[in-house]
Amino acid sequence: MTIRTAVLPVAGLGTRFLPVTKSIPKEMLPVVDRPLIQYVVEEAFTAGIEQVVLVSSSGKGVLEDHFDSHVELEMALAAKGKDELLQLVKDIAPPQGKSISAVRQSAPLGLGHAVLCARPVVGNEPFAVLLPDDLIWTDGSTSAVLTQMVEQFDEIQASLIAVMEVSPSQTNLYGVIDPYDPELDDGNDIIRAKGFVEKPSPEVAPSNLALIGRYILTPEIFPLLANGKKGAGGEIQLTDAISALLEQQSVFGYRFRGVRYDCGDKTGYQMANLALSLQRSEMRDELLPFIKKQLADWS
Ligand code: UTP
Fold it and tell me: Closest ligand 1 atom to the C-alpha of 110?
């Protein structure tokens, strides 16, 4: 089975970015000059996804608008002969044969609940989930993370979750995979899971492989989400349902290639802006001396 649908949950409150997220969805915050949502939508389409489903909420219509055509703007750019900008704007729309639609999550009851809201659109087939606040940068020589995961799924035909090594002292900030056979899995890209532990303290963490916001899930996850069990924070947690899925079928971690920036967090977001700005030759020449001067002033 191939992966046709990607679910992008965007209905969270984004409280860590208040006050800006009072009126602007977190997923519209720009990294350099593109909103976070655009990075993940492009990642999904590049991986062969045909339909992207935003799980949205009131006040987030601007996310759908971003991918619509803007006739007035396009006419103004054309009239001024700004062809490059015109192309840039046109390229935001989904490519031929692909679509972006939205379903509503009536209240922010948790990531698991958000994924469940997309069930009628996904149907009974495996699907991807991408969290827009996890921006994963890959250079030109490496495929985007979802592309890497779709290739792995083609081989193993089982649910898989992106994992990355974090400092052992930081396991309490993440969901962590409990590997089935740590010795066998040592250094492998694909790691069979025995379980998942939410935010374990370093002394009891079964590994330092943290779960990151890219998933490929089989549809058997939906009944487990639908039983409505609340987990940490009183929310319906995706990780809890994946743990329950493990009792029925194998689930794997996938050690991806790429650099992940946690753009749901203010510091991670600034890091993403800095790193991606430095990739742009037109910005680097001015930015680098500025950063060096800042560093000198601070030391
Ligand atoms: P976060 O845990 O980052 O929550 O959600 P949040 O509300 O966006 O941000 P903070 O913690 O209050 O600052 C991870 C992803 O899951 C989505 C969010 O939009 C984000 O993409 N989400 C979360 C939902 O769609 N619905 C929910 O009920 C919860």
Answer: 28
Q: Is the pTM of this model over 0.85?
A: yes
Measured from the CA of 9, which atom of ligand 1 is nearest?
A: 25
Between the CA of 12 and the centroid of ligand 1 the distance, in Å, is: 4
What is the whole-number distance in angstroms between the Cα of residue 6 and the centre of ligand 1?
17
* CA dist., res. 8 & res. 122, Å (int): 12
Burial class (CB in 10 A: 0-12, 13-18, 19+), 255: middle
What are the chain's domains?
Answer: 5-159+212-264 (3.90.550.10)
Give the distance (Å) from ligand 1 centre to CA of residue 85.
Answer: 32
**208 token code pair:** 């330092």
CA neighbor of 161 nearest in space, from 206, 129, 198, 205: 129
Task: Please tell me the residue having the least CA distance from ligand 1 atom 22.
Answer: 12
pLDDT tens sequence for the chain (299 residues) = 889 999 999 999 999 999 999 999 999 999 999 999 999 999 999 999 999 999 999 888 899 999 998 999 999 999 999 999 999 999 999 999 999 999 999 999 999 999 999 999 999 999 999 999 999 999 888 899 999 999 999 999 999 999 999 999 999 999 999 998 766 666 688 999 999 988 889 999 999 999 999 999 999 999 999 987 787 778 888 999 999 999 999 999 999 999 999 999 999 999 999 999 999 999 999 999 999 999 999 87
